[in-house]
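TL;DR need structure tokens for one chain.
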Amino acid sequence: MAEFTVPALRVVHAVVGTGSFTAAADLLGYTQSAISRQVAAAESAAGMPLFVRKARGVEATQAGEAVARRAVIVLAELDAMNRDLALLSDTLAEQVRLGAFPTATWSLIPRTVAALAGEHPALAVELHEASSPALLRQVRAGGVDVAVIAVGQGLPEYDLHDLRTERLTDSGMGVVAVPLGHRLAGRSRVTVDDVAGESWIVGAGLRGDPQFGAWPTLPEPRIAHRIRDWNARLGFVAAGLGITTVARIAVPGLPAGIAIVEVDDPAWSGRTTLTVTRPEPSQGQRVVAAALRAAATGEG
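>> reply
TL;DR here they are.
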């Protein structure tokens, strides 16, 4: 009697979950003929039909549903075994202290850490959140191994001469966060004049730490609230109490209730996100920097 194979179990599970051979093929990256072959092999092992072909898609028989239920358990155990083996074989058993300015931790850093966990399970990443100048001090002092900082217009001229840097992203056109019901919420792009009369929710923090203020080229912005915590700041925006500037790198991590609008401002040159390490980073630190680059460019 034929036995079930791992590819056949994956295919049966995918077909039951998607309801069609075509969708299962797309999900698994197989051809439809490969899907059909694996289903035939699974049905041979089961000794009975697993699917009934319909005009639109397929429907699992009771046997198909039973195989799919058990396949979930089997496949999960196999994946866990592969992770255990990867942990044993991964030579990159190192701890890397990764620092980032707050808005970089909303989306870029979680995507990076998730990718590293899958590719290098023995690599331990310890997160540190701080302002760019504080991170640079920590890199030089050895408290942080890889830092994500912002440079550009409106920020100090940081001394980077003895550090290794790599460009991650350029902000391009700046963005502001507005409430969903705001008069500008339905527009993808506005001018500086459009935001000139708005009330602004701005940052408040330690002396010397860069803060997101009102739009940087406005001569006399109306400041409604100064708030240190970003979650509270965005909560005020969502409640309709003002608008705020945000880093473009943070946009994927913004909460519900907020719309993003680009501001077309020829006087604003934007900012750049960099990774910073000491001059001779370790293998693990290089891997973390590469993962940051992949996450920032959408390659990860």
